[in-house]
Amino acid sequence: MAVSFLSPEQCKTWEKSGKQEFLKFINGVGDRSVLSSLGNRDFRQAIYDLCQHVIKGNLRVEQAIHVFHDLKDKYPDLISFVVDILSLIDVELSAVEEIKGAREKLCTLIQTLGNTFDCDALLKSRLDHETLESAGLVPSKTVFSQKHVKIKTRLYYKQQKFNLLREESEGYSKLVAELNQEITYKITPAVMLQNIKSLIGCFNLDPNRVIDVLLESFENRPEVEDFYIPLIQSYVQDNETLCHCLGLKFQFFKDDETPSSLFKLAAILLKNDLVHLETLYPHLHPVDSVILEYSKKEMADAKAYARKLMVINLADKSDEKKKEEEEVKIDVRVNNQKLGLVEALLCIGAWEKSKCILDWLPEFFATTHKPVASALCALIHTVMDPVYRTSSGMTSKLVSKWPPIEELGGSVPRATSFQEVNTLVFPMVAYLGPYISCDPILLMKLIRLSKQYMIKRAQGSLSPEDAPTYYGLLNVIDEALLPSVSFLSCNCCISQEIWTLLKLFPYELRYRMYGNWKNELYISHPALIRVKADCLEKSKYIMKRLAKENVKISGRQLGKLSHSNPGVLFEYILRQVEKYDNLIGPVVDALKYLTDLSYDILIFCIIESVAVPEKEKTKLGETTLASWLQSLATFAGCICKKYTVEQTGLVQYVTNQLKAGRSTDLLLMQEIVQKMAGIEVSEEITADQLDAMSGGELLRQEGGYFTQVRNMKKSSSRLKDTMLEHDLALSLCLLISQQRDSVIFKEATRHLKHYGKLYDQCQDTLVQFGSFLSMQLSTEEFVKRLPPIHKMVTEFHVPPDAAFFLSRPLYSYDINAKYDELRKAERAEKDKKDKLSTSAKTQKYIEAAEFVMAPVIENVRPLQPSKIWEELSPTFYATFWALSMYDIHVPSSAYEKQISLLQGQANSADDNKDLGPSKRKKERERCNAMIDKLKDEEKRQTEHVQRITARLKAQRDQWFVSRATKNETITQFLQLCIFPRCCFTASDAVYCAEFIHILHNLKTPNFSTLICYDRIFCDITYTVSSCTENEAQRYGRFLCAALDTVMRWHSSKEFYEKECGAYPGFVTVFRKGENSNQKADQLDYENYRHVCHKWHFRITKAMVTCIESSNYIQIRNALIVLTKILPHYPRIVQFGSPLERRVDRLKQEEKEKRPDLFALAMGYSGQLKSKKQFWVPETDFHVRDKEKKAAAAAAAASAPVSGSSADAAKDKQIRPAGSGERSSASKEKEPKKTKTDKAEKTLEKARSEEKGRDSPVDAKKSNSSTATEKKEVTLASSKASGSKDKKEKEKSEKLAEPDKARSEDKMDKSKDDKATRKDEKGIKAKEEKIDTHKVKIKREDKSDIVTPLKLKVKQEKVEPPEESENLRSDRKEKGKEKKGEKERLKVKVEKDGDEPKGKDVRDKEEKLRAKLERMKEETKDRHEKEGRKEKHDRKLKRSYSPEEAAKEVMYRDHRDAEAASNSSHGSHRQTPEASPRRAEERDTKRRKTEAIASTSKEDLGSSSKSRHRHSVSPDKERERKEKKRLRKEAKALSDADTSYANSLDEEDREYETMSVSMSKKKKSLDGSLRGSKQNGDSDDRWREGSYEQHYDDDGYARPTTTRKEHREAELEHERSRSKDREKKKDKERSKRPKKS
């Protein structure tokens, strides 16, 4: 780019300094000599910049004229130079797109320059005519042009002589006769030239006219080229004169059809360089501008045609046809002298001259003219004929029969090698482009020649000079061969022939060619644009009518279209498949008439459609994959399965996407493997299929998959060959494994659900692809490609679970191979006839396994920290991961089922009369052969499992080292083995459960089955929450399989005693210490049932926590797990009912919000209801027998309602769960608490004190139960005192009947339920003597006895933690306080000390039982009397004032609330009013208050109308104010009750928080809770309370049963607190002196 000497900044400051700087620069650059100055480059550039700034508008015209005026004196020729610059600028503006207003400024400058310096003549001679007209220098350019032509003709062409041809006809006639005579050897060009000169001289002929006659003669006799060419060369010395004469001939025919002889004459003259092409070209018609404009219009018309076909036009088509007929289309190619000259040049072989004309014309403009294209094809035939005859691949006999090629001239070069083909033939083919289709024979020759070149190149038989031909061949295929197919309608032969060439190239180059053909060439050629539009229209027509019924007809039509335009057709078909997935089947069936080239392009189109970056591969919200991607993946899988296509491109595309960290396209791989190999990874697999998957290969194929794998051998072998050929098998496995764990870091998504989907997709594809490789690849191929386990984990960063999954078949193969080797060696040492015994074979197998697994064990050690191997041996780790279900379980039922199915097929084949005898026989033989194979496979697997079992027995002592505790061992076992594998596949989930059972059956040392199951079931909340959807399915299967084993032991004592009774896995207490014996305590059957009950409760707690959370993942996974474990959970009514209620509530909440959760909840709810009939009560689930139940009920009837403190202490050790529901019989037998219970309560308290001396923990429990008894005594006394004023209370109750009914119903039910639960708890405490859920501490020989079930997952030590000093000091203080209370409350009992009086106690219990029965009868009679008086009491309702009724209601509520509070919160609250002395004071105070109230009622009843505020005494006034305040409080409590009932869920949470805070305020309860937690007992309060549906945040159950009771208990507590305040105020008022 030239340097600018005038900047825009100078233009802005032109008047100030810019002009002076410019003139200074010009004068400095310019020389004194004008010519040298004008020739200076900087000078010319500066003047040019000045004119350009005027054109751009930076300077005004007047400013530039002033500069020219200043410089004109120094440089006289400046104006001529400026005119030349303006002429140059005019050309530039016409060549490029004009700047807005630039031409107007140029015209203004020209006009001003002409007017100022009077240079019009100079401007007219150098500027264009249009510019002169625009500048106003000429009135009309047409008139000026005609005048200009006339002047030039007169000056240069007009002869100043007469027409001698007319006047001197004899001379010209002699000349014509001389030139047209027969040319013989005697007549040479020299002789002819001498004769012509003689005629010119004799007749005075015009030399130019002689040239014209000479050319006419040559035109008519072109065959004597050898004679005329030397003659013309010797006669005409000036080529321009000859060119002008020839040009005049072309000008004469510009409006008419030009004769071909004239083109041939010009071509010969050009070929022999008698005429220069640059001189002749301007004489040819039409001009280039017309051709260029026509080419652009042709492209625009083609695009408009395509758009028109894409738009639905509802107008009348006849009108459009009329308009098209009226339009006169002028084809520039008709009578085009330039194209005719090109054709003539090609016909004579003048390629270089014709190439120049082709370059000057628009691209492919000449070759779209069929005569030109045919001439060029003929020239290519001639040039490539020699090399084609030698390298066509045809036999020599066939080549000898080919006719010779017509000679175009001796000067035409011929190609004899591939190197010359690249230099001579390929350039000509490139100029032809897609229009080589006009000569299919030439197309076929090129394909065959190229194919032979590729074959020799693959064989390495080419010379180094032929190597560059490869790249020329790529260009020819890309630009000519492939696009030419688009013009060959229905020519499947050419398509198939091109495929034979293209398949020799790698798929990367093929796909690049397909992409260029489909996306570039179809928009660069007008003819191809029209072809594409027509193909699309036909495709739409066919696809609209495609259905299953006309697949064959439509398939043939699609096949015809695909032969010529496969890319366009498949793009449209794929768009339809993306939208309508129901088209997949018909389209796949209809594509059976395609060629191999079309199938290959179809795979490319699928990849291209999937890889479009503009398409969103996830649905709105990024939670699930888009439907179009699923449809395309399914379509691709069906195509790959049904037709023989190359899948390398698809597989490599998926591999590249995984390298880039995008796993969405794994769906393609998943569908391909599923369709081609029949291996489907589905979580909906049935139990029978899952059982069959643990069998041999044949059983898995027959019964393990949804499709028959045996029918897919061909397609699966094709996929296997693709993987092995391009070495993609191992790469895909490693990439999928890496992507699975990195998907959350690499995928750009915001939704956790979508992350789970991608993780599951990676996992499923890995399992699916790994299964395919293990089935299809031979072990040698697999071993050759798979690296060792430690290398996969460390170098390739594959997770251990995936690494073992890939390596597992390798270990099995190596062990079997080594086993066969050892067995053969053993037999070789002995006599060959003697067979090895079973024990010897087993021993050899164990030796082989140890030999093979030894290096694996060493490779496994670096995978985990060394601390891990202190608790878990590498041998066990490798053994666990190396085995599968095939190794440990024989699915006999699955084998039997398949054998019976095959027998049925054989029988049905015999009965099928439609089959011929031979087919029936063949089918029967096939079934029988399959049965024999299955039986043989079952036998082999049985022997294999026996050998594996023996191997496990031999290795079991090495698995769990004794350095670590059992708790830590189980932790590592679950963390490293069970949890990673149970979520891997469904089969692995069952394997994990079965392996735990095997560890139990093998009596593995240092392995506790009880701890293992306890860890698995106790808290599954976090495990469920951290699973993906498919992992939740597998985890549910694992839990179901584990529950199957657990519940089988639970179902029968015989099973339990047989399989668990003497097994070390069920040892509950391990004695440690120097003085302790080594005997282990086994868990008996009934305590095991308690343990099962605990596990069911823990599962209930975890599931309810997940369901009640608002988290989508937790709710979904919980429903999935619940669905999977439905065969074994829930089994208890008390656990199933709350679960059912929460699921029903979930359905209502999620119906509109999250439909997928609603669907899961609906499905589970229906299945749950179907299992409801199998639920059992809690007492049937973990109570031994009915006799003990009856005995327990009788003991409960004789015992106090709250139970003794000693029983409570036992209940801490043996915690049967209360069901929270009572039968009607238990309600009838429940005694009422009265004042007569005091002595019994005191007696029980004394017994609890005696038994509570065993341990501090028991003492704490005894203190807690004592406090409860105190409250109950107070409650009884209050009831006894309250019965005296029954009549007055009944009157007030009738006034506030609605409040009374509601309150009494609630309180009665609450008291009854809680009393019943305490009765049941006391009964069970007396029956049960073993606590299986608690750390039991005995003081004998100072040794710790640890029960493993109390341990949590995160505990590291088995021993319970020691109490802190503060805790011990608090405990001492509390003990002192309680001791003082006990001394005050102590009733005189026998003081023998160590031995209690059992007989006296029994006698007192019988007396108490009799009193309770009498109390029941009295209560029943009292209720009957109240019913009879009910009608009479209603009549007295109006006689009571609202104040009196409110006060009575408050008093009654206070009593009821206090009683309910003592019964329901006895285990949570301890108040100082629980003592007998406080109870007596409270009763006295209450009687006084009630007496005052009754007196006020009588006064109010007698003089209610006559009293006045000023006449009331001060006491009455205070009483009135108190009544008013009580009414307000009663109303507030009633409103609170109503709001509480309307928000149950809110109150649940509030109650949880309040109950926790209340329990923390009480020191005695706080100490007992801390003590129980420190001892590892996290379930004491659960055992004391109920296993109902309500739970606290800290993991403890609420002691109440229903929401209604929770609400009532809370309200009663508030009322009791209010009444306490009122009693204090009454007491203060009673102490004051009364005023008169």
Structural account:
- By secondary structure, the protein is mainly alpha-helical.
- Helices cover 70% and strands 1% of the residues.
- The protein is built from 79 helices and three strands.
- It has a three-stranded antiparallel β-sheet with strand order 2-1-3, with no helix packed on it.
- Helix 56 runs parallel beside helix 59 (1112-1124) and helix 63 (1186-1198) packs across helix 69 (1297-1327).
List keywords for this structure.
single chain, mainly alpha, three-stranded antiparallel beta sheet, 1% strand, elongated
Span from first to last CA? 124 Å
Strand content: under 5%
Strand order, sheet with most strands: 2-1-3
Helix content: over 70%
The radius of gyration computed from the alpha-carbon positions, rounded to a whole number of angstroms, is 54 Å
Largest sheet: 3 strands, antiparallel
Which regions contain 5 or more consecutive residues with pLDDT less than 50?
A: 30-39, 1070-1078, 1198-1367, 1385-1398, 1435-1447, 1460-1481, 1491-1512, 1536-1601
Structural class by SSE content: mainly alpha
Shape: elongated
Total strands: the figure is 3
Quote the average pLDDT: 74
| Total of DSSP H or I helical runs spanning 4+ residues | 79
